[in-house]
Every structure is written in C-alpha cells, then in structure tokens.
C-alpha cells in the first residue's frame, strides 16, 4: 500500500475514473468474443495491447512491479495473475478469468470476468455463477455509513453456504491515479468491522472463490497463484464508487453481467 489514508475523489477525478472504467469494460467485452478452443492466452494478450494502444490508453499491468504482459489470464486452477503464454491453448471445458486494467488520462479502470471455453462442467458453471453472485452481494453492501467488513461478510457467507471457499491472500483495493492503494477490501470478514464507507471512495471488489481449499501457492515465476489442491478457482471484478445514495459501478460490462 502506497498510503494508509483513504482518498476521497473529486468530481473531476471521478469523471476520469468513469472513462477509464468504461473503456476497461469495453476491452473485456471485446476479448470475450475471442475466447474459444484453440486460442492461446498470448493471442488474447496481444489483441488487448493492440486495442488499448488504438484507443490511446495504456495497459496498467505491463511492467507493473516487473509484470511482463498486458493482461492476466487465469485458467482453471489458477487463482489470479496468470501470465499469457503462446503455449497455453484454451480447450473445451476450461474456465478462464481475463483481468484487464487500463490507464486513461492517468486514472485506472480495473475489471475482470471468468469465461467458459466451450461447454463447462456442472461444477465449473456453478462456481462461476456463485462467484458472480458473490460480487453482486458485495456491491449491494456498499453505501455511505456501511463498514468495509460488511462487504466481505456478505461475500463469505454466500460462498461458504454454496460449499465453496474464499481466497484470503488477495483482496480488493483502493484505486485512482494509483493502481493499488488504501483501503484493502477483504472478501471475507465480519459485519460492522473495519473502516466506514464514505462518498467519493473508489475501490475494487474482486472475489476469488475456490471449489476446494481457500489456500493458494505462488509459482516460481513469482506471479501465477494456484489453488493448493489444484481444484478450480473463479474470479470477477468491478471498480466501484461510493455515492451519496449507494454505489456506482465504474466498469459496467457492455454485455450485461447481472449486477
Ligand atoms: N488487475 C489485478 C487486480 O485486480 C492486478 C494485476 S497486477 C499484475 O488487482 F501485475 F499482475 F498485472
Ligand atoms: Co484489482
Ligand atoms: Co484486476
């Protein structure tokens, strides 16, 4: 975390976040059309970089703390931060999370979604559906005066009621002209705990929900996080603004995503 204090964004900054967020969501939607058996994760990355440059925007992950690519592509048992690779070819039945973050006029839009490659198994379908419902319930907990713990509690309660687990090692984050800043938004926790939400706060909710254990391990590449038991993991993410009356989704998915 670069800073402990939670920044409240000005109207001018919020407009920039909205532009970055909407463009990031548009990129995610654009890439979704490429998700098919036979496509490599590097092809998704290269199209993302090409499209981003065409829009006059910048890929935030590229070079961030040494990250080598423009997007993260996390397949099946990969929890997050999967690195696109020419040798990784999508096959029927895979699930893939694509996580994109764009910088537009200095501000960040961060969003992700898990897609089916061909026909998913029943358990993969359930995991992805539960993950999206977790994000929806987390977003629903956002309003001025609510606490950060209310978000994680809503997510954890639903995930565990469906027989799944919540990853602890990666959390949502404040985001503005800085990619990752205060506050941290755990996807687990207790209602009424943590800092109070105030209008002008902007942060992500990005639950990683596992089929089996919540424990993860990071590969030798220092990025790719895998489930310890190698069972499936799914994730989805929105960038969110706390408003006077509740919440605004800054990364609305053009295809509609049920939130
Ligand atoms: N987009 C990811 C997030 O949701 C962060 C990726 S950092 C990278 O926070 F370096 F791996 F790209
Ligand atoms: Co994020
Ligand atoms: Co992200």
What is the helix content?
A: 25-40%
Q: In the CATH hierarchy, what is the architecture at level 2?
A: Alpha-Beta Complex
Largest sheet: 4 strands, antiparallel
Bound ligands: 2-amino-4-trifluoromethylsulfanyl-butyric acid, cobalt (II) ion
Give me a quick take on this structure.
The chain is built from four helices and 15 strands. It is of the alpha+beta class and 259 residues long. 2-amino-4-trifluoromethylsulfanyl-butyric acid (MF3) binds next to strand 4.
List strands and helices in order, with pairings.
Blueprint: H1 11-32, H2 41-54, E1 58-59, E2 72-75, E3 78-80, E4 95-104, E5 107-116, H3 122-140, H4 148-161, E6 165-166, E7 172-174, E8 181-185, E9 202-205, E10 208-210, E11 216-218, E12 225-227, E13 233-235, E14 238-242, E15 247-249
Helix pairs in contact: 3-4
The protein binds 2-amino-4-trifluoromethylsulfanyl-butyric acid and cobalt (II) ion (2 copies).
One cobalt (II) ion (CO) is lined by residues 99, 101, 110, 112, 206, 237.
Question: Can you describe what's shown?
Answer:
- There is one protein chain.
- The longest helix is centred in the N-terminal third of the chain and has 22 residues, at 11-32.
- This protein starts with 10 loop residues before the first helix and ends in a 10-residue tail after the last strand.
- 49% of the residues are buried.
- The protein is of the alpha+beta class and 259 residues long.
- The model has no long low-confidence stretch (mean pLDDT 97).
- A hairpin with a 4-residue loop joins strand 14 and strand 15 (247-249).
- The protein has a single domain, classed as Creatine Amidinohydrolase (Alpha-Beta Complex), CATH 3.90.230.
- The protein is globular.
- Helix 3 (122-140) packs antiparallel against helix 4.
- The protein has helices spanning 11-32, 41-54, 122-140, 148-161; strands spanning 58-59, 72-75, 78-80, 95-104, 107-116, 165-166, 172-174, 181-185, 202-205, 208-210, 216-218, 225-227, 233-235, 238-242, 247-249.
- It has 4 helices and 15 strands.
- The strands form 5 sheets. Strands 1, 2, 4 and 5 form a 4-stranded antiparallel sheet that branches. Strands 3-12-11 form a 3-stranded antiparallel sheet, with no helix packed on it. It has a 3-stranded antiparallel sheet with strand order 6-10-13, with helices on one face.
- Bound molecules: 2-amino-4-trifluoromethylsulfanyl-butyric acid and cobalt (II) ion (2 copies).
- Residues 61, 64-65, 67, 72, 81, 99, 101, 110, 206, 223, 237 line the site of 2-amino-4-trifluoromethylsulfanyl-butyric acid.
């Amino acid at each position: 975390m670069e800073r402990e204090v939670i920044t409240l964004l000005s109207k001018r900054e919020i407009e920039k976040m909205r532009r970055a967020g909407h463009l990031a969501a548009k990129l995610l939607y654009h890439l979704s059309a490429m998700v098919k058996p036979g496509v490599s994760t590097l092809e998704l990355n290269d199209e993302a970089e090409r499209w981003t440059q065409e829009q006059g925007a910048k890929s935030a992950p590229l070079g961030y703390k040494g990250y080598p690519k423009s997007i993260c592509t996390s397949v099946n048992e990969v929890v997050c931060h999967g690195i696109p690779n020419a040798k990784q070819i999508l096959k029927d039945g895979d699930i893939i999370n694509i996580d994109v973050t764009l910088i537009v006029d200095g501000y960040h839009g961060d969003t992700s979604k898990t897609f089916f490659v061909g026909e998913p198994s029943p358990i993969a379908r359930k995991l992805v559906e539960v993950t999206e419902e977790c994000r929806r319930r987390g977003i629903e907990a956002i309003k001025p005066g609510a606490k950060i713990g209310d978000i994680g509690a809503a997510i954890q309660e639903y995930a565990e009621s469906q027989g799944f687990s919540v990853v602890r090692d990666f959390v949502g984050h404040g985001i503005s002209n800085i990619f990752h800043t205060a506050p941290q938004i755990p996807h687990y926790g207790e209602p009424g705990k943590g800092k109070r939400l105030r209008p002008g706060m902007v942060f992500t909710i990005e639950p990683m929900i596992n089929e089996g254990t919540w424990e993860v391990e990071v590969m030798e590449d220092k990025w790719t996080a895998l489930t310890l038991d190698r069972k499936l993991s799914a994730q989805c993410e929105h960038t969110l603004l706390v408003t006077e009356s509740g919440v605004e989704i800054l990364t609305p998915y053009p295809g509609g995503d049920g939130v």
